[in-house]
């Protein structure tokens, strides 16, 4: 299965609207921030957004930064990367100075981007990035970051989502999505059932050090906007994930080599997924269940590499000189 086939969400107009709505929700979840407050804005000149989708995040960042310099677009570099151009904004709807480039983050970036970016942003890759490709993707990120540059990552996985009360429909909604992620290679196949908080991902290595790691929960969040919209956001994602699983099963059932027995089983599983999606939607509409989620917010920095026979202070001064020239 290719990287694009691993993606569990759609790329149509409806999904683009959901992504833009989700962006606004994430701002409120982040207490008004779309960039972690620990990252000094003054150090950022070149920013990349991986899995950019509609480009809503990178466009806002570009507008904010350029506003601080009276619209001087030449002072900054903003690039949104995605494996598919289907959701890229039309040029008329994009901020000046933002480029959109088709690229798969599990392959090396062109050399012109190596060591360029002060910040790389990633959001919600747990439904797109295969477990086996995570380390490769991180190596690609490290390669395009400048020494001391920031990785900014926000993630909400399916096992970080829950509903109150935990009705049978709610419980039935999680396992099919986990199993679908296994089928697509997004989770290691040793994971069969969601037990506790599953996190098979290694987020760091010797060249990428975590400087901030926190969990932001919707459950007791002070924002009235978060409380008012968490059901809308949670339900939209979960129903889309269940629908995606049903679509893949129907496609497998339609293949010529699929036996009649397997075809019937796949179609039955697809119907179950669709029924669960409808059931959890009705529970929200009827006020029976409330959906919540924990968002993991990660800030990491690329290490400053000390050359052989070079002392640390010399390396640090070299890095500071490099920054002042950039």
Counting helices, strands and paired strands, the structural category is alpha/beta
Largest sheet report: 8 strands, mixed
N- and C-termini, Cα separation: 41 Å
Envelope shape:
globular
Number of strands: 8
What is the helix/strand order?
HHEHEEEHEEHEHHEH
State the helical fraction. Answer: 40-55%
Radius of gyration, Cα only, in angstroms?
21 Å
Explain what you see.
It is a single chain. The chain is of the alpha/beta class and 326 residues long. Helix content is 40%, strand content 19%. It has 8 helices and 8 strands, in the order ααβαβββαββαβααβα. The protein has helices at residues 3-6, 13-29, 56-67, 134-144, 168-183, 224-254, 260-285, 312-325; strands at residues 46-50, 77-82, 98-102, 117-123, 145-155, 161-164, 208-217, 290-302. Strands 1, 2, 3, 4, 5, 6, 7 and 8 form an 8-stranded mixed β-sheet that branches. Helix 2 runs antiparallel to helix 6 (224-254), helix 5 crosses helix 6 and helix 6 packs antiparallel against helix 7. It is globular.
SSE layout:
Layout: H1 3-6, H2 13-29, E1 46-50, H3 56-67, E2 77-82, E3 98-102, E4 117-123, H4 134-144, E5 145-155, E6 161-164, H5 168-183, E7 208-217, H6 224-254, H7 260-285, E8 290-302, H8 312-325
Parallel strand pairs: 1-2, 1-4, 2-3, 4-5
Antiparallel strand pairs: 5-8, 6-8, 7-8
Helix pairs in contact: 2-6, 5-6, 5-7, 6-7
Short description:
The protein is α/β, with parallel strands linked by helices.
């Amino acid at each position: 299965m290719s990287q694009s086939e691993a993606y569990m969400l759609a790329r149509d107009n409806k999904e683009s609207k959901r992504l833009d709505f989700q962006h606004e929700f994430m701002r409120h979840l982040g207490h008004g921030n779309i960039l972690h407050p620990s990252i000094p804005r003054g150090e950022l000149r070149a920013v990349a957004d991986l899995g950019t989708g509609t480009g809503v995040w990178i466009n806002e960042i570009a507008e904010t930064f350029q506003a601080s310099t009276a619209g001087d677009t030449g002072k900054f570099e903003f690039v949104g990367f995605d494996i598919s151009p289907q959701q890229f904004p039309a040029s008329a709807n994009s901020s000046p100075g933002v480029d959109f480039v088709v690229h798969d983050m599990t392959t090396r970036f062109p050399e012109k981007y190596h060591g360029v970016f002060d910040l790389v942003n990633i959001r919600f890759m747990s439904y797109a990035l295969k477990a086996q490709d995570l380390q490769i993707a991180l190596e690609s990120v490290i390669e395009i970051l400048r020494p001391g540059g920031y990785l900014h990552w926000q993630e909400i996985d399916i096992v970080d989502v829950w509903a109150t009360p935990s009705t049978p429909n709610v419980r039935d909604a999680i396992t099919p999505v986990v199993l679908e992620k296994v089928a697509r290679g997004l989770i290691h196949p040793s994971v069969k059932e969601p037990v506790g908080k599953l996190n098979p991902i290694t987020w760091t290595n010797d060249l990428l050090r975590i400087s901030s790691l926190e969990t932001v929960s919707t459950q007791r969040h002070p924002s009235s906007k978060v409380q008012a919209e968490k059901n809308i956001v949670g339900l939209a994602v979960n129903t889309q994930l269940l629908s995606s699983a049903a679509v893949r099963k129907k496609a497998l059932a339609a293949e010529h080599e699929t036996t009649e027995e397997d075809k019937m089983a796949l179609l039955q599983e697809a119907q179950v997924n669709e029924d669960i999606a409808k059931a959890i939607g009705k529970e929200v509409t009827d006020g029976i269940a409330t959906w919540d989620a924990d968002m993991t917010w990660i800030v990491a920095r690329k290490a400053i590499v000390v050359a052989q026979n070079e002392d640390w202070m010399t390396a640090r001064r070299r890095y500071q000189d490099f920054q002042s020239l950039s």
